[in-house]
Amino acid sequence: MAYNNKQEPVEEVETKVWSCTNDSCAGWMRVDYAFDANPECPLCQSKMIEEIRVLPKLS
Question: What b-and-e string marks burial along 13-28, b requiring 16 or more CB atoms within 10 Å of the CB?
């Protein structure tokens, strides 16, 4: 029996994020959820820079 596996597309929006400057670290976080104005990477404690990514919209 075949089922229809169509899923609704997820709405994506441009979102400001903090991104780790360490090339060997993939750490990032949404700006809206950061506690500091200039946070350190929670994974490697390197500096983070602000950038924009296209991410799924959160409710």
Answer: eebebbbbeeeeeebb
